C-alpha cells in the first residue's frame, strides 16, 4: 500500500514503516527511545516490533494497564514520572504501540512532556489504525467524559502494520469496523456497501481508503472548526451511550465501536426527522448495524442519563447539542440540532 502524506507526517504501511522509523531515529539522533505499551501489546505486539526496529539508541519500555478506564490524567502522571526517572529529555522519542487508548494518551504525554517531545504512533487495533492514531488528536478522558483533556499534536510518522490485527479479538475488529462504516456513509458509500453485502470481507482491504478519507478531511480542517466535525457522525449519541455504560456498574461496558454503531442508528433516525434522509435508508442502517453488532438493551430509564452525558460533548456550543446529520449518504450537514424529546425518540427507535 502506498504511503499517505498528512500535513506534517507520513503514514507508512507494513514493513516499509519500520525502515522509515529506523532512518528517522538515526537522522534525528534522538538521545533515547521510549516505547509505551499496555499489558496486551507488551505480550502480543512488542516482540514483532522489536524484531523489525533496528537502533543502537537506548530503549526503555513503559507499561500501563490496558483499558479505557485507565485513559486518564493519573496514568499520564505515572508515565511522566517514569520518563523523568529514566532520564528522558527534549531529544527523547516516544513510540506508542497499542490501540486508541495508547495512541491518544501517549501522544498527549509526549506533546506535554518538557513542552513537547517527538512521538511516533504504531496502532495495533483496527480502530486505532483507521481513526484514533491519525489526525493529530491526543488526550485523555475526564472521569467518564470522553477526550475532554487534550491537545492537537502531530506524530513524526505513523506505521500501519496489519499483522497486529492477528493479536486482537473479533469483537475489537467489529469495533474498528464502525469507524469504516462511518466513512462509508459520509464519504464513500462503496465502503459501507462492501461491509453490508460481503460476509467474507477481508477488512484489511478497506484500511487504506479509510485513512485516505480521514486524512483528506483533516487536511481541510485540522482543528475541527468546520468540516472535520463530520468525523463525529454517530459519535454524539454514541459517546453518551459509551460513557453511560462505562460509569454504570449494572451495565457491561461497550467497546467504542459498539457504542458508535448505536449512535449511527439513532442519528440516522434524527437525520430522517430533521433533514431529508430517506426512511428506507434509516432501516438499512439499522438492519446492517444489528446484523453486525447485535442488539444492546437500552431501557427508557437509560435515556435521560445518556442525554445528560451528551451535553458535555466537545462540539456543543452554548449548551446546545450539535449533531452531524445526513441528507443522504455522502451528503452531510454539520451543526444540526434536535430536541431532547427527539433524541429520546431516536433511542427508542433503536430499541424497537
UniProtKB/TrEMBL annotation:
It comes from the Bacteria. SUPFAM superfamilies: Dehydroquinate synthase-like. Keywords: Cobalt, Lyase, Metal-binding, NAD, Nucleotide-binding, Zinc. GO terms for molecular function: 3-dehydroquinate synthase activity; metal ion binding; nucleotide binding. Residues 176-316 form the 3-dehydroquinate synthase C-terminal domain. One of its GO terms (biological process) is chorismate biosynthetic process. CDD domains: DHQS. Residues 62-174 form the 3-dehydroquinate synthase N-terminal domain. Gene3D superfamilies: 3.40.50.1970, Dehydroquinate synthase-like - alpha domain (1.20.1090.10). Its cofactor is Co(2+); NAD(+); Zn(2+). InterPro entries: Dehydroquinate_synthase, DHQ_synth_AroB, DHQ_synth_fam, DHQS/DOIS_N, DHQS_C. GO terms for cellular component: cytoplasm. Its EC number is 4.2.3.4. Catalyzes the conversion of 3-deoxy-D-arabino-heptulosonate 7-phosphate (DAHP) to dehydroquinate (DHQ). This is 3-dehydroquinate synthase. It comes from Tenacibaculum singaporense.
Amino acid at each position: 500500500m502506498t504511503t499517505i502524506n498528512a500535513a506534517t507526517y507520513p503514514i507508512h504501511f507494513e514493513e516499509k514503516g519500520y525502515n522509515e522509523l529506523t532512518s528517522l531515529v538515526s537522522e534525528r539522533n534522538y538521545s533515547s527511545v521510549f516505547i509505551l505499551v499496555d499489558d496486551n501489546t507488551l505480550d502480543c505486539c512488542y516482540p514483532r516490533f522489536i524484531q523489525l526496529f533496528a537502533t543502537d539508541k537506548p530503549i526503555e519500555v513503559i507499561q500501563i494497564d490496558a483499558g479505557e478506564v485507565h485513559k486518564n490524567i493519573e496514568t499520564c502522571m505515572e508515565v511522566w514520572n517514569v520518563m523523568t526517572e529514566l532520564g528522558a529529555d527534549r531529544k527523547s522519542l516516544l513510540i506508542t504501540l497499542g490501540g486508541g487508548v495508547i495512541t491518544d494518551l501517549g501522544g498527549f504525554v509526549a506533546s506535554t512532556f518538557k513542552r513537547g517531545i517527538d512521538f511516533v504512533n504504531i496502532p495495533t487495533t483496527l480502530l486505532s489504525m483507521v481513526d484514533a492514531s491519525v489526525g493529530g488528536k491526543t488526550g485523555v478522558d475526564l472521569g467518564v467524559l470522553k477526550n475532554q483533556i487534550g491537545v492537537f499534536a502531530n506524530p513524526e510518522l505513523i506505521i500501519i502494520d496489519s499483522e497486529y490485527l492477528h493479536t486482537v479479538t473479533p469483537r475489537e475488529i467489529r469495533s474498528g469496523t464502525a469507524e469504516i462504516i462511518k466513512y462509508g456513509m459520509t464519504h464513500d458509500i462503496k465502503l459501507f456497501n462492501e461491509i453490508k453485502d460481503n460476509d467474507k470481507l477481508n477488512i484489511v482491504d478497506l484500511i487504506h481508503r479509510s485513512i485516505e478519507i480521514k486524512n483528506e478531511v483533516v487536511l481541510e480542517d485540522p482543528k475541527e472548526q468546520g468540516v472535520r466535525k463530520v468525523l463525529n457522525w454517530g459519535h454524539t449519541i454514541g459517546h453518551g451511550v459509551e460513557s453511560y455504560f462505562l460509569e454504570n456498574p449494572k451495565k457491561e461496558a461497550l467497546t467504542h465501536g459498539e457504542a458508535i454503531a448505536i449512535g449511527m442508528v439513532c442519528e440516522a433516525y434524527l437525520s430522517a426527522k430533521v433533514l431529508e434522509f430517506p426512511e428506507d435508508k434509516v432501516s438499512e442502517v439499522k438492519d446492517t448495524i444489528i446484523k453486525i453488532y447485535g442488539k444492546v438493551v437500552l431501557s427508557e430509564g437509560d435515556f435521560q442519563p445518556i442525554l445528560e452525558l451528551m451535553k458535555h460533548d466537545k462540539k456543543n456550543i452554548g449548551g446546545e447539542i450539535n449533531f452531524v446529520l445526513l441528507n443522504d449518504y455522502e451528503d452531510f450537514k454539520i451543526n444540526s440540532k434536535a430536541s431532547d424529546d427527539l433524541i429520546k425518540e431516536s433511542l427508542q427507535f433503536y430499541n424497537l
